[in-house]
Amino acid sequence: MHGLEGVVAVITGAGRGIGAHIARRYATEGAQLVLVDLDEHSVISLAAELRELGVDVLSLGLDITQLDAASMMISESVKQFGRVDVLVNNAGVIRVKPFLDTTEEDWDYMQNVNAKGLFFCVQAGAKQMLNQEPISEGRPVGKIINMSSIAGRSGRKFMCAYSASKAAVIMITQSGASELSPKVTVNSICPGPVDTDMWVQIDAEWTSIENSPRGSAWNQRVQGVPMARAQTPEDVAAMAYFLATKDSDFITGQSYHVDGGVLML
Ligand SMILES: NC(=O)c1ccc[n+]([C@@H]2O[C@H](COP(=O)([O-])OP(=O)(O)OC[C@H]3O[C@@H](n4cnc5c(N)ncnc54)[C@H](O)[C@@H]3O)[C@@H](O)[C@H]2O)c1
Question: Disulfide engineering: 237 pairs with which of 25, 102, 144, 256, CB 3.0-4.6 Å?
Answer without folding.
Answer: 25
